[in-house]
Design goal:
5 helices, NADP_OxRdtase_dom, mainly alpha, oxidoreductase activity, 38% helix, 135 residues, NADP-dependent oxidoreductase domain-containing protein, oxidoreductase, AKR_Detox_Biosynth
Length: 135
């Protein structure tokens, strides 16, 4: 499996907050239709904030952690990423140095039911409801 948008169209980039208007140059600020239809949910932004706080305590950036988490799924062979800048690319490659622990998996599972989207009540039939196979 090769997932795309492992940063949830920027929600897991750390640049958005549920109580702050997005930068007008960002995807959310430009009212990107696909983002607004999918990942742009208050619940998702709150979860992203919690993840960012968690990884800061570990000394890891949210981008690196999110990419590493995707790659820690043994069903995933690669991830389709879309960096716009060299700095973003550097963050993506640093993910290869991040190890995801059982504690990390449990933390994410405590925020988002395995196999489900972050928005309660939304079920994506393209994902495993029983969870994800980890490496």
């Amino acid at each position: 499996m090769v997932p795309y948008s492992p940063l949830a169209r920027g929600v897991l980039s750390g640049k958005y907050a549920p109580d702050i208007a997005p930068d007008s140059e960002s995807r959310a600020g430009r009212q990107d239709k696909r983002l607004l239809e999918t990942e742009w949910r208050v619940e998702s932004l709150r979860i992203a904030q919690r993840i960012q706080e968690y990884v800061q305590d570990k000394g890891v950036g949210i981008v690196e952690f999110a990419i590493a988490w995707v790659l820690n799924n043994k069903a995933v062979t690669s991830a389709i990423v879309g960096p716009r800048t060299e700095q973003q690319w550097d963050g993506y490659t640093k993910a290869l140095e991040v190890s995801i622990t059982a504690e990390d998996e449990a933390f994410i599972d405590s925020l988002v039911t395995p196999g489900h989207a972050s928005t309660p009540g939304f079920n994506d039939t393209q994902h495993f409801v029983s969870g994800r196979p980890v490496r």
